[in-house]
Design goal:
By secondary structure, the protein is an alpha/beta fold. The protein has 17 helices and nine strands. The protein folds into two domains: 187 residues, Periplasmic binding protein-like II (D-Maltodextrin-Binding Protein, domain 2); 112 residues, D-Maltodextrin-Binding Protein, domain 2 (3-Layer(aba) Sandwich), CATH 3.40.190. Helix 14 packs across helix 15.
Length: 306
């Protein structure tokens, strides 16, 4: 039986012993995407309520995995499968990064264009080269280190995209450029995904033909929680929380709206979203204690003023 499965078997209904003091500092990572900023904010909020001292580190995906392997980070709530297989595969093979659970289903991730670009004839990855001049031979990505699938598409001879450029910036920078192009009715192709308020803020359409790079059904994806090797056995109470923690598209869309539309920071957005739906706490905190061994649900409710 895999070590991870053995570790999780101990998470039944019985209360766990409080984590060691060495578990107090919890190092989380996120790559600057609003969905993961929000879910990381939820994790931080819960951990603080339990008496831990979590920190969030904004890093590219490649650096996140290297840091987990090197034990410089503990938790990553944002493994998008299959889009991140290109990053995770080597660490999975070595066993240096472990997957705890799927925390979101119904996600998707692939190339997107504005609706007027789609109506002009860009329906599929193979259509991009037909309109190369209109696109300026550019596609827009997010943070450096998080756009390998775009580089892979450009390198694929079947798509005829030789000479195209990936413009890397950030999620915010990419979406600002998309909004500018939409306002001017100019051509743009960029990374699109759900959950995300971009799906209602922008008149976007997703392209077919990306199965080779993102998987089928427009990059239909799950998102999973991952940890550095050995973390679950070292800090089983945090591990129990991670084994409970799951989200859904509507909850994330709402929380991301607080980030993007209302300008809240991730923890403030998380606190508001949790207060909107406090019933989620019972499932998330079932069998979870505070760092000093007290009932976790009571402590988090008190910290949130519930």
């Amino acid at each position: 039986m895999p070590v991870l499965a053995v570790a999780l078997m101990g998470y039944g209904g019985a209360a766990l012993a409080a984590d060691a003091e060495s578990c107090k500092a919890v190092r989380l990572a996120e790559p600057g995407w609003n969905d993961l900023a929000f879910t990381t904010g939820v994790g931080m909020t819960l951990l603080k309520g339990l008496g831990y001292e979590p920190s969030a580190n904004l890093l590219g995906v490649e650096v996140i995995y290297k840091s987990l392997e090197n034990k410089d980070l503990d938790i990553f709530l944002g493994y998008w499968d299959p889009a991140m297989q290109v990053y995770f595969g080597n660490y999975k093979e070595k066993g240096s990064v472990e997957t705890v659970r799927v925390n979101l289903t119904g996600a998707k991730y692939t190339f997107a264009v504005p609706d007027y670009v789609y109506e002009a004839g860009v329906h599929d990855f193979k259509d991009l080269q037909k309109f190369a001049d209109q696109f300026g031979r550019k596609m827009y990505g997010i943070e450096p280190g998080s756009n390998q699938t775009m580089f892979d598409a450009i390198a694929d001879k079947d798509l005829g995209l030789s000479g195209w450029e990936v413009v890397e910036s950030s999620e915010q920078g990419m979406l600002a450029e998309a909004q500018r192009k939409v306002k001017a009715k100019e051509f743009i192709v960029f990374q699109g995904w759900a959950p995300h308020p971009m799906n209602t803020a922008l008149p976007l359409r997703y392209l077919t033909g990306g199965d080779k790079f993102y998987g089928p059904d427009f990059g239909a994806a799950t998102v999973s929680t991952q940890v550095r090797k050995g973390y679950l056995s070292e800090c089983p109470n945090v591990g129990k929380l991670l084994s409970n923690l799951a989200f859904d598209i509507d909850f994330e869309n709402k929380g991301m709206g607080y980030l993007i539309d209302d300008g809240m920071d991730p923890e403030a957005a998380a606190a508001k979203a949790i207060k909107d739906e406090p019933q989620r706490l019972e499932a998330w905190l079932a069998g979870v204690e505070t760092l000093d061994g007290k009932p976790g649900l009571d402590a988090v409710k008190a910290a949130l003023g519930l």
